[in-house]
Amino acid sequence: MAKITLDNLAHSYLPNPAGEDDFALKELNHDWRDGEAYALLGASGCGKSTLLNIISGLLHPSQGRILFDDKDVTHWPTADRNIAQVFQFPVVYDTMTVADNLAFPLRNRGADASYVAQRVQQIAAMIGMEDQLRRKARGLTADAKQKISLGRGMVREDVNALLFDEPLTVIDPHMKWELRTQLKSLHHEFGHTMIYVTHDQTEALTFADKVVVMYDGRVVQIGTPQELFERPAHTFVGYFIGSPGMNLFDADVLGRSARVGGVEVDLGAAYAPQGGKIQVGVRPEFIRLAADGNGVPARITRVEDVGRHKIVRLDVAGREVSAIASENAGLSDDVTAITFDPTGINVYADDWRVSAQGEAAP
């Protein structure tokens, strides 16, 4: 297990990058604590896999350093970093049995035979393959092979870090839930430093202690699921986390109030944003429907009943806004406006969250 430090780290796939836009991974300076489980979350192409491959040693950064427990490992080969990595698509030895595939990392390091047998049984139980240990990997389904890859990544107890690069892509939905739960249990039991790359917010939020949200090659927020939901540090975080994502409204902000669509809105706290583009962000859970005309003018365009609640889509000055209503809420054409719960309002200047006056620093 190790603390992982990203020191002035950046990477470009171009030989002579001329500016920031030429970097697939823009400058990062972060410490990731020993023994925590992190998820790298973001859309395709945001730099998640690039960062993971730099940490593992498969890619050498254009600038900066990677440190494990304050030791500079930037130029160390992958084998010397003592990490285990599981890739998006299964990597198994087809001519070996399931048991031999699982045992390979331990035997390769000269582990005692009885310990190897014990760990193989434990991991096989974890991935649900006890009854297939004697079977050759050739001919197994893609999801079965990926379970072997996961198991082989988890079989060693002495690694500095376990790295997962979208490992559940080929796994069926029910097994995804089980394997995420088992990975979480493994982390609680052994305390490995884990880094899990995914574009799926459900995977990230259910797996990780801290979610690292990436956008356009940079880390825009590191936080707990609750922090990401309640106080998104960047408008992308608000959009990407949550279903539906956060609504954004252009606004003029002055102190404790804002003008949205020509209507005065109580912000619940005082703000003094500086920037060119000022917006108010409100998640659908904090949008209230009004039939008395008091609020920002809005018109219901459709209602989606998802069982536990209803997602109400509204037209607000030509833009779609989403609200969450209870399952038994009576909705009609009488709804003519929306209001905001001040406890759920965030203010943004040029896409970055502005702290309320007197708010403690994050």
UniProtKB/TrEMBL annotation:
Keywords: ATP-binding, Cell membrane, Membrane, Nucleotide-binding, Transport. The keyword Transport applies. Residues 4-241 form the ABC transporter domain. CDD domains: ABC_Carb_Solutes_like (cd03259). InterPro entries: AAA+_ATPase (IPR003593), ABC_transporter-like_ATP-bd (IPR003439), ABC_transpr_FbpC (IPR015853), ABC_transpr_MalK/UgpC-like (IPR047641), Mo/tungstate-bd_C_term_dom (IPR008995), NA-bd_OB-fold (IPR012340), P-loop_NTPase (IPR027417), Transp-assoc_OB_typ2 (IPR013611). SMART domains: AAA. It holds the Pfam family ABC_tran. GO terms for molecular function: ABC-type ferric iron transporter activity; ATP binding; ATP hydrolysis activity. PROSITE patterns: ABC_TRANSPORTER_2. One of its GO terms (cellular component) is ATP-binding cassette (ABC) transporter complex, substrate-binding subunit-containing. Belongs to the ABC transporter superfamily. This is ABC transporter ATP-binding protein. The lineage of its organism: Bacteria, Pseudomonadati, Pseudomonadota, Alphaproteobacteria, Rhodobacterales.
